[in-house]
Amino acid sequence: MKSVPTLFFTTAAVFALTGMIWGIQMSAIHDHTLSPAHGHLNLIGFVAMAVFGAYYALTPSAASSKIAPIHFGLTVMTVLVLVPGIVLAITETGETLAKFGSVFAVGSMALFLFMVIRHGVGDPIPNDPRVSTPSTQPAK
Ligand code: HEM
Question: Is the minimum distance from the CB of 45 to ligand 1 under 6 angstroms?
Answer without folding.
Answer: no
